[in-house]
Design a protein that fits this description.
single chain; about 750 residues; alpha+beta; Rhopdopsin 7-helix transmembrane proteins; Beta-Lactamase; 5-stranded antiparallel β-sheet; 24 helices; about 60% helix
């Protein structure tokens, strides 16, 4: 039972050492082009070598045959090998996450870091032989002369002195080199701490902190173990000191392995996990063979070699058939566990997709994409750029329509003979792009490693540009797939932002129209003036929030009533501005208020000088002599008003040209008498041009018929009756601005 307990620690060292060692080999194979990955691989390689040596020594000590001799400690006697962990650590600190300025200026520093350890290795490998030659030198010199008994004693004394000096030098050398290791570790820790200052990527900061904690724990254990070994057993027993020394390497390698697998350290987690999964399954199958299959085959071997061979062949076939399904199931379980973890790439991209969908402005979308993609991929730089349809880059990215590397965009289109092979290659320019001229380097933004096009209706409207990764590796298949999905989400977000912007602008515009309508309605007469012997009422209903129709009442010297109705071409705010100009001119032109022709001439010149050729206005300007019941009027292309008297409606058909067509025009003044009980109805074309659903116009005849039927009622009631009839005819809608003014003369008037 005690033997079983004594083997637990070496087996634990062995397993940890194998995992760390193989992880280092995997990183070295995957990241040969990346300086940080190479340095991390060397760290793991030598950190795993230490526990392997320690485990080998402990296992061999328990299995030695009687009389065999072994080194006291495999870990100590071969420390000149695993101590290469320390320069690898310092090299990693100089290259991650960015290459240090000193290393950029003097690349040879990377090699000089290993020089003391190479000399240290040479001293251990060849130092004993050199010292042996040095001790033989006196004997050789004595042999050349007559050697006496006294000389033998002298030579023996010399051997003892040299041996003591050698042991002293070796102790001093080990102590000083342990100090070098500590100095290397302290410098590396300082560099790792400084490098995380100002990093925008929070995940990189977490990775650096994880590695830093592991290195700090490793340094503490190493310092404690070496100090104890130098002091003998006064601090810790030798066996415990050696265990702490092994633990120092396991702590460092273990934290790096944790960062790689759980925190996407160095961007190779997916491949490393797959490699470790294959290793685990291979170990399981090996254990099954040793514990179950081998005993059965030995049992069959007692009776028949054929049975043994058949059983082993059957096991091999079973492994071949079951290995792939087992691998697939194990990968599904592994991926499921990793997706649920906070550090998984899928989870980071899902959170990024949620942030993209929630973006309400282009600025917030750009910020979310830049920050999220940088955190998810460890890119040095990320920026989103909107594209114009005429940009050559937009055409090239539209041809690709998926994440593409810079070098592939610069690659010239294939010759016609290579079109078939072109379809089979991923991320290359599609066959439809063969007629497009190849891009040149000046047409692409600099320092961009990967382009992610954002497509809308087969057009590239934007792209996300990713710089190279902070640790120098390329973008993997998993990342490219997530980025392609993200591009679709960005395209939808851009569409939503555009629609939201249009909605906000429309609401702002509608609010402005509402305010303009309030202003315009205040410009129109509120309560009609109370004129003895007459009834007066007017109404304006714009087809939009604001319109181009205008009417006004002005009482001059308590004798004259000015009635103005105008219709400006167009609708909306431009038309309302022109009506405001007309009103201001009429209100301020006191010298011409009672002269219809003079006022219309003034309005005509104003519109002609201040508007374009496509803008004009119609106007009816009437001046009623309240005492006489006579109206003088002039018409500038306006709808002919109706005069209703005795149940008969007649139109005032005299008119001049519309306002604003020519610089000057002499309008003609006309006169009409309004007898008692009569009514004057002035309207805009919004009344007569109103259409039914069948496309029929309301028309002047229909209005005339209504006036002849109801022309005897009050001005207010007649206005309402006409508006109701027009709206009923048009199914409740008015297609144009609608304005109506009714002036009635009482029946008792004389």
């Amino acid at each position: 039972m005690s033997g079983t307990h004594t083997l637990i620690l070496p087996v634990l060292y062995l397993v940890c050492g194998i995992i760390i060692f193989l992880l280092g080999l995997t990183l070295l194979r995957l990241g040969r082009t990346s300086a940080p990955t190479r340095a991390a691989a060397l760290m793991l390689f030598f950190a795993g070598l230490g526990p392997l040596l320690s485990a080998s020594g402990m296992i061999m000590q328990h299995t030695l045959r009687e009389g065999s001799v072994l080194f006291t400690s495999m870990l100590e006697n071969f420390e000149y090998l695993w101590e290469f962990y320390f320069p690898s650590l310092l090299l990693f600190a100089l290259t991650f996450p960015r290459e240090h300025r000193a290393l950029q200026r003097f690349p040879a520093i990377g090699l000089l870091l290993f020089l003391p350890y190479i000399l240290h290795l040479a001293a251990f490998m060849f130092g004993d032989a050199m010292l042996e030659q040095l001790t033989r030198l006196p004997r050789a010199l004595a042999g050349a002369t007559n050697r006496t008994h006294g000389s033998d004693i002298a030579i023996s004394g010399f051997d003892a002195v040299v041996g003591a000096m050698v042991r002293l030098l070796e102790s001093v050398h080990r102590a000083l080199f342990a100090l070098v290791n500590v100095v290397y570790s302290v410098i590396a820790l300082d560099l790792l701490w400084r490098s995380q200052q100002g990093l925008p990527n929070r995940r990189l900061i977490r990775q650096l902190r994880t590695v830093g904690i592991g290195v700090a724990a490793s340094l503490a254990c190493y310092t404690l173990a070496k100090t104890s070994l130098m002091m003998g057993t006064r601090l810790l027993p030798v066996s415990r000191s050696q265990a702490v020394l092994s633990l120092s390497l396991v702590a460092s390698g273990g934290t790096i392995a944790y960062a790689v697998i759980r925190q996407q350290f160095l961007g190779v987690r997916h491949l490393v996990q797959r490699a470790l999964l294959y290793l685990f399954l291979a170990v399981v199958l090996g254990a099954i063979y040793i514990l179950a299959v081998r005993p059965v085959t030995l049992f069959f071997a007692q009776y028949s070699t054929v049975g043994q061979n058949a059983f082993e062949a059957g096991f091999v076939v079973l492994v071949v058939l079951a290995f792939q399904p087992v691998i697939e199931r194990a990968e599904l379980l592994l991926e499921g566990a990793l997706v649920r973890s906070r550090g998984s790439m899928a989870r980071r991209f899902k959170l990024l997709g949620d942030a993209v969908a929630a973006a309400g402005t282009l600025e917030s979308l750009d910020e979310s994409v830049a920050k999220g993609v940088r955190d998810a991929t460890d890119a040095t730089d990320v920026r989103m750029t909107m594209l114009d349809a005429t940009d050559p880059l937009a055409a090239a990215l539209a041809d690709v329509s998926e994440p593409v590397r810079r070098i592939e965009l610069l690659r010239a289109p294939a010759a016609p003979g290579r079109r078939r092979g072109l379809r089979r290659r991923r991320n290359l320019i599609a066959e439809e792009a063969l007629t497009r001229a190849p891009l040149v380097a000046d047409q692409l933004p600099s320092r961009v490693e990967l382009f992610v096009p954002v497509m809308q209706e087969r057009q590239c409207v934007a792209y996300v540009a990713l710089g190279e990764k902070v640790y120098g590796l390329g973008y993997g298949t998993e990342e490219m797939g997530h980025l392609a999905v993200l591009a679709t989400q960005i395209g939808a977000a851009l569409q939503n932002i555009r629609l939201l912007k249009e909605s906000v602008e429309r609401k702002v515009f509608e609010e402005e129209l509402r305010i303009a309508r309030q202003i315009q309605m205040k410009m129109l007469p509120g309560q009609p003036p109370d004129i003895p012997g007459f009834g007066l009422f007017g109404v304006a209903v714009p087809s939009r929030q604001v319109g181009g129709d205008y009417y006004d009442f002005i009482v001059v010297d308590d004798r004259y009533l000015v009635v103005v109705v105008a219709d400006v071409s167009g609708k909306g705010i431009p038309a309302s501005l022109l009506t405001a100009t007309l009103q201001a001119t009429v209100r301020t032109g006191a010298d011409a208020q009672t002269d219809p022709t003079r006022m219309l001439a003034r309005l005509n010149g104003l519109i002609y000088q201040n508007t374009s050729a496509s803008e004009f206005a119609t106007a009816f300007y009437g001046v009623v002599d309240i005492e006489r019941g006579v109206m003088r009027y002039a018409n500038a292309g306006h709808e002919f008003p109706f005069v209703v008297a005795g149940g008969h409606a007649a139109q005032l058909e005299e008119s001049g040209i519309v306002l604003g067509c020519v610089a000057e025009f002499d309008y003609t003044e006309h006169e009409v008498v309004m007898p008692a009980g009569s009514a004057l109805v002035i309207f805009t074309d919004g009344v007569t041009d109103s259409e039914s659903r069948a496309g029929e116009n309301y028309g002047a005849p229909r209005l005339k018929q209504l006036l002849e039927t109801d022309g005897h009622i009050s001005a207010r009631d007649l206005c309402r009756r006409v508006i109701e009839d027009v709206r009923s005819f048009g199914d409740g809608e008015n297609q144009d601005d609608l304005t109506l003014v009714v002036l009635t003369r009482d029946r008792e008037a004389s």
